[in-house]
Here is the input.
Amino acid sequence: MKNTPKRKQRNKHGVVLFTAVAVMLMLSILLTATVSFVSVNRTKTNDNYKSKQAYLTASSTLESFINQIQTDTAPTNDPTAKAQQKKAIDNLKKLASANSGKGTTTNVSYNGSNGKSDNIGTTKITVAQEGTSVANIVVTCETTYLGKTEKVAAHISTQSVTKPAEYTNTIELVGNGGAGYDNLNVIGDMAGINNTTGKVYRFTNNTSIYGSYLMYGSLEVSTQPLIMLKPSLVDEKQGSTVTISENLDVSNEFHINSTMARADGYNYVNIGQKLSTSNHMDVGSSGFDVDLFCCEANIGGNDYTQYGNFYVYKGAGAYNGDATFGAAGQTINGSLYVEGDLNVTKSLKVTGSVYVTGTITGKDKIVCTASNIHEGAVLSKAGRDAKPQIPVSADAYVYYPEDFFMSSDTNVTTISDEYQAFYDGSNTKTFNTFASDPSYWNNVDYTLTELIDLTGTGAKTPVTSRYKLRITSSCTWASDLSFNDYGNGSRILVDVSDSSGDIVIRLQNGLNLGAEWSPVIVVRNRSTIIDTTTGDRKYNCYFVSDSGSAITLNGIDSVTGKSQHSGSSACNYSFKGLKVFDYDTYVRMFDSSVLNNTKGNPGLPQSGFVLNPTSVDVAGSYRPKNSSIIFLFGENTTLNATDQSFFQGSFYSPQAIVNIATSGLGGLVVTDSAGGKMTVQCCAVGVVIANSFGNANTAFYVYTKPSTTSVMQNAKGGKDDSAFGYTLDRYDHY
Here is the structure.
């Protein structure tokens, strides 16, 4: 996860956001009905150019009005400024909607260099509605100069755009409790985003993260975990970092390495408080420096080896920037910076320089060129030596699954009608309906043949896959299917199309499927309406908790900025051997001997299949599109998935418990952007966002973004709510 969250450009080209300067400007127009900020570059004219002078005055006035705002304002993420932006837009709309949409007219005076009014014509500015919507505004400047009148106009579209959500973490914990990880392996970034002090996370038994790590709380390390910093899977141009807001305590081997050479902006470990080691710790490697920052250091026990600079800077409270080095073997292949006092009790090798603001005890134990040891130094804290900032908070979630289930606001959700239909009696269909109702019998023992580009060369070949059952509309997955017909790994196709729209599958509360069922769900999305920016299809498949219809949405909390709800029913689910695939991945991952079966464990992926979770194409690999399979679990829902379960899709469960304690899908080959490969046991391909998360066994979780057309895109739809601004559509001369 990026340590300084960056928002996407929220409006199209030409949009500007109003800051305080613009607010004052609009308030001035609204309250005093005068415009005094306009500065017109005047040229000498004569009577033959009366019309031209009138036009120049009008157009200069209008352009100054627009350019002043564009020049003096810039996009901002500051909540106070955003509130002012909204007020500015509201004021502009008030001007436009006055007089039944005819707007507000203001006379303009021009001040010369002597402070007196210059007579270069009389001008009036009118801000009015264009058409019936106040979202569309026309600003007109009309100037009369020595009997000649000219008029120009700027056409503006105001907008309030919901901030799109950004998903950068393979696993993200939202709850305020700690967690322990046993053999957890993550390809992509991982984060604990709830900034609650005192939480403790624990890594045991070879837990590995191949990406960045951000957590609020402390990390305790035992049993040889690894963090391998890799280029971001969201943007290959970005590097990776480790950020721990409180303490790092290493009681067993811990390795933090990198596949990239260090550059400004990445390859660092940033600890907000104290680093303590009592066993071996490695940071970086030859040619791949990783810098480390903390506010207090106590290096002891066995070896400490680092390639990169070690910084100990003062922090809040009692953290005075002191460092003690007393490990049996300790080497810094770089420089050491200590803002407090340095105490060296055992031999410390430093290949660069040592800079200490306070005093050095045990200077004779420092193996370093004497002239490179500086006591009483002044630290610049600039450039590479500047301590990275720990963000006050990560991007917070505003809307929860309950909002998607119950809200009537189409800017928040597109699935509430489908969800509520399960409870008002208008949708009583279940999986068994498709299996037993004669009107759906053509969906039993279903065979699908489709031309597919399997090689990425553009050449398409026919691919046939067979399914025991096909689902073509929203329904409930209940326990009413016949085990004799639909047990033993039955393949079930969920077919999303333009005619189906979003398919919402409610998981009946208490659904408990043992290993004898082991269903294989394949979701095919062939909706033809495509987002031209992302390439994502309009409709998606949602698996939702049976949270009931008694949910009440209580509005946005004025302090936290988060949606409030009550009345969500608790749900519990247990699956053994459940596998969920995206169709386009499924038909590439397995060969015809698997695809032609309607039952059975699909087994290992076929030889030659390589999954590419990065943001760039890699020859010989398959890079899935953003996932259109979304799991939405409401408050107090618990999912337990075991016995080689596998999920290709994204979980949005910020108030639920997700336990994927399974060895997953074996033999999956995954590539990085450089073409390197590793074979893994894989539990999930997507993102997992949960209040708490449980895992077991040596299994991997691989990053893939959720579809930008899914309701998840609105989940963070505003820590700062919306982006307010306008688009300058065109100028006109009448």
